Amino acid sequence: MNSKDSNLDALFESKLTTAIEAVARIRSGTTIALGMAMSQPPSLLEALAARAEAADLDDLKVYYFHAEEFLRKSLLRYSLMGRIVPHCMFMGAPERELIQLGDQDGGRKVVYFVPNAFSQSPRLFQEHIPVDTMLVMVSPMDENGYFTFGTNNDYTSGVARAAGRLIVEVNPNMPRVFGDSLLHVSEVDHIVESDHPLPELGAKSASDTDQVIGELIAELVTDGACLQMGIGALPNAVCSALTSHRNLGIHTELLTPGLVDLIRRGVVDNSRKALNRGKSVFTFAMGDRAMYDFMNDNPSIESYPVSYVNDPHVIAQNERVLSVNSTIEMDLTGACNSEHVKGHQYSATGGQLDFVRGAYASRGGKSIIAFHSTAGGGRISKIVPRLAGPVTTPRTDTHMVVTEYGVANLKGLSSSERARALIRLAHPNVRESLTSQARELHLL
């Protein structure tokens, strides 16, 4: 708390309580929502898990995206399943582990996936998922009585105001962030204080293949372009290949250390953006301590709700938007499955299609789907005759495709031309079989 107003201090103190007391009013059979990823509040989650463990709670529906370590170690313990009913909106390793344990336990259903478009998630909560209580971690209150949502604006800022009760965990390690990120103390029902270090996203080393793809993509980037990057070693390799560019901008769903490094180097200055000029815009951030420190009180970085950041109409208003996303598999027509593996939900739709469409609609924009040609140590081709899962990005929306074997622009190509172009991007060991299968599908 850093307030010069005694009335604000008194209001803060009147709402300050312990984690145990804060969650005491949550009832069995109700619905709660959690902040996403780094904003999941550890003290509150531990207190809620203790109630479930003591059989003081049952059938508690919990809605969230991106479970990180705090949530994984508290509410998402297999022993609590049933009393805690996870309604996951973006699947990750914690949910996949729970599903596997349920399968081993006689095929027990323990995780419930909620299909969604990330950009629509604030509306889903406001209109279709009545939330009794929202739990989220925020940055400390300033002298004017405002917290900020820090690393996570996404759906969090909207649900915080739509929920029947809002409980915040104030943490000095949560960066204070500009943009549409303010939350006034008068909007909060209960306040808990803690000092947990934020979860950090370990940097994955770029492979030789990542570096090849990164260089290919960098050649497609013009000075003044506006960037959106996904997560992982490949997007970081792209960022590393952009250090000689100039006047780049950022309008991205996810802010990562790779993008922040471009800001530090002066490669990104956002000087040519039409919207939020001079500002790097994001809706959620995942990185390391150095990145969180760089974000803190940095007026050049702003967060906004995902309904704004991921709106294709908003994205398209900046010129030369370059969107880089990946996929699990792509068929010979260019359709992408970016969320299913072996017939099961693996992640989620996320914001891929929003940025695919928004980037292509921008003047001079490029939407890129980039991926290694193979998976499983080279045993599995990621370019396939037919998808084994749902269509995340339709073939009609796919623009540019990049693997370590080159670049293909699918726009304007016939089905036959697309198949030939994608076969050239596949691993040489599978090109002959893909060609044969393409003939069977009457693509060639």
TrEMBL record:
Record keywords, A-Z: Transferase
Enzyme Commission code: 2.8.3.-
Residues of the Acetyl-CoA hydrolase/transferase N-terminal domain: 110-195
Enzyme class: transferase
Residues in Acetyl-CoA hydrolase/transferase C-terminal domain copies: 287-438
One annotated GO molecular function: transferase activity
Pfam families noted in UniProt: AcetylCoA_hyd_C, AcetylCoA_hydro
PANTHER family listed in its UniProt record: ACETYL-COA HYDROLASE, ACETYL-COA HYDROLASE-RELATED
Similarity remark: Belongs to the acetyl-CoA hydrolase/transferase family.
Identification of the protein by name: Itaconate CoA-transferase
